[in-house]
Prior knowledge:
11 helices
Amino acid sequence: MLDTLTISREEICxxxxxxxxxxxxxxxxxxxxxxxxxHGTIHRLIMEVIEEMNLQAxxxxxxxxxxxxxxxxxxxxxxxxxxxxxxxxxxxxxxRLMPNKFVFTYQGDGDLAAIGxxxxxxxxxRGENITIFFVNNGIYGMTGGQMAPTTLxxxxxxxxxxxRDTETMGYPLKITELIAMLPGTYFxxxxxxxxxxxxxxxxxxxxxxxxYQKLNKGLSFVEIVSNCNxxxxxxxxxxxxxxxxxxxxxxxxxxxxxxx
Length: 260
């Protein structure tokens, strides 16, 4: 009786039965990010959309220093490295030389909102027809867990062991709200990937950003609030809970600037 009810793996994996398949635009290299980190999910979503839109041959990604630089090992597309903070400037040059390519940057908060603040703001203000993917985990993850421009008030880091004191260290920089006010930005949104529902929302935001670039609408800016459980000294589950309770009130999810 059991033999007659047994269904082989081959039968289950027929195309009509599949609800999900791994994108072919991720390499076979094992992800080297810390367990629980959001970078891997964000990589997958970007590559899924590029594959679904048949843009592999026409895509050029730019990633600078930090955890972002590891993306070269995992994304099977043309990639260009940039100096720390300079990805928007490099992407600007690429897009102007090859306007028919889909060009994006993939940056962390220390890179985009600290050493690269100038490049970010001016690329956004000029309305360069590129897409910026901004991963905000409120800390310098790769270099030792130092305080970043986006570190929350009273948040402990390697360089603020007693918590960020706003009187002496200033306030967190809400760079996404700042660039949303610039006339060159067309679509600005803030999402996350910590739940299945949020993953779906983030994928839709990525799809919109790519579509707007294809339509030459100007710069699209997609912030993704993520965890850094190793930098925050928490387990992945604890870091997601902490992110919901602390990061999201300061960096609320949702669209900030949408086309009229």
